[in-house]
């Protein structure tokens, strides 16, 4: 039994370290796994994808990277990117240096005599672009995020880490990239027996919506024959309950408790920004990553509050539910600030405010204490810590800290956080007070984790398919793009042309038992993909010559609309990953050029740059058929500012 636990931990640690070698945990056939379907399969996505700057050029990591690469290679735009970087640096500059940094920005970028002076764009150019887009944008614009089917064969599975309400949580690794995640399995029969479909779908949709440094992110959602699976940020450092009670004397030094409280507050703020109330704040649900930063996990009880409305629901964990929840009153975001008060108290004191450690007491008695008694403070609390706990644990929600119009901003101004620079914290620039041991596995032994019993008397049928289809939606764009960049897959795939190897037959899934797969560790498998037509060989065009941002349009020198290319020559290039690029044939003004292929783009810039838009042609263009460069009259178009 002990040997089985040692083997499971050893395999998991090896996977976390990258498995050794240059591939860093990637499958040998990772490039085949990441191949894309034919561009024709993306037509529906082309019609529905959001094309605003904020989404494509700021929030989405690949779009942001491509946008920056293009701007940095154009002298006229490089200064704009430098300006935005300087403003970002200003926002996380320590207070004592803000004045100096501000003067530096003013002098360098906002002084007319400066060589990198930031100019403005006139309204006439804005009007021109708006008029152009209102004509026939569907013929001119193309942009798509290609998703492949995600199945259990997309991942390698490792040891069980714990258990949730509907199934186990285990470690897993993406075969294509080597990225480690936690896979939360929700057994289909168990969900159906408990009528938990709405709860499971609600958690999935909320996780998909929230992209926060302080909340576990959903990367993939897929289904197997027996389960629905959520692939989440893996947190190797264990939960706060383990660290409060199992690492020396119960509780933390106030400095450490303050750091965790600040990060939890930032996570709550991100949830509240989406009008989501968490409702289950407790040490077990706060997890540490490899570096000692925390994330809020298990959003099963979280719910989105309709705008301007309140909700009612007696849900949560005994001892952590707010008085208004226990009384079944209508509430908004107030229960989360009560939970934060309970958590700060427990981190410092080493026990929850309304129940002693290992005290055996009925639920009714704990609820009575929450409603009627005041918490007791020991010598461990400073005056500031005592003050913030009292204000957060105010029984009247209307008087509670954080429950006014300012929300989390009011809590941040409390003297307890006097020395906390929240801007640097939110940027990930502050070092945590504790870093987990990378050689340790912070969870129970495999055999100590209680297994679920078999669900009997429940049958799955076609009536459940609609729910499963809503749940199993594949990869989530922003976490997936971050994974591609972090694992350097984007860097290696951001080239297309004759040097990219053609895709061979799909690799066969591994054979043998699951345990054999774990011990083998190097087996690889490809997910099934839609058959596609391979692109015509072309010279290599790197992302410095062809960039993708918010709006992609095809136009020739006379601004004529380029017609759709014949089906057999359209292809989705790995160069942009989920931001597709493909050639089209100019049948209007370019007929005399022997069907030369033209690329053209224009994109909307950041609002900080006055909605600046630029239309351009790459510096190097080649024909899809003869592979020769386009005539200079097509290449040498000047960079124009549109809007």
UniProtKB/TrEMBL annotation:
GO CC terms of this entry: cytoplasm; nucleus; plasma membrane
Residue ranges occupied by any Protein kinase domain in the UniProt entry: 155-417
Every AGC-kinase C-terminal domain range: 418-483
Family: Belongs to the protein kinase superfamily. AGC Ser/Thr protein kinase family. GPRK subfamily.
Matches recorded under PROSITE patterns: AGC_KINASE_CTER (PS51285), PROTEIN_KINASE_ATP (PS00107), PROTEIN_KINASE_DOM (PS50011), PROTEIN_KINASE_ST (PS00108), RGS (PS50132)
Catalytic machinery residues: 280
EC class of the enzyme, as a word: transferase
GO biological process, alphabetically ordered: apoptotic process; regulation of signal transduction; Wnt signaling pathway
Family matches, as Pfam families: Pkinase (PF00069), RGS (PF00615)
UniProt keyword terms in alphabetical order: Apoptosis, ATP-binding, Cell membrane, Cytoplasm, Kinase, Lipid-binding, Membrane, Nucleotide-binding, Nucleus, Phosphoprotein, Serine/threonine-protein kinase, Transferase, Wnt signaling pathway
Membrane topology: Peripheral membrane protein
Molecular function GO terms recorded: ATP binding; G protein-coupled receptor kinase activity; lipid binding
UniProt name for this protein: G protein-coupled receptor kinase
SUPFAM superfamilies: Protein kinase-like (PK-like), Regulator of G-protein signaling, RGS
Reaction catalyzed: [G-protein-coupled receptor] + ATP = [G-protein-coupled receptor]-phosphate + ADP + H(+)
Record has Zinc as a keyword: no
Localisation: Cell membrane; Cytoplasm; Nucleus
Main location: membrane
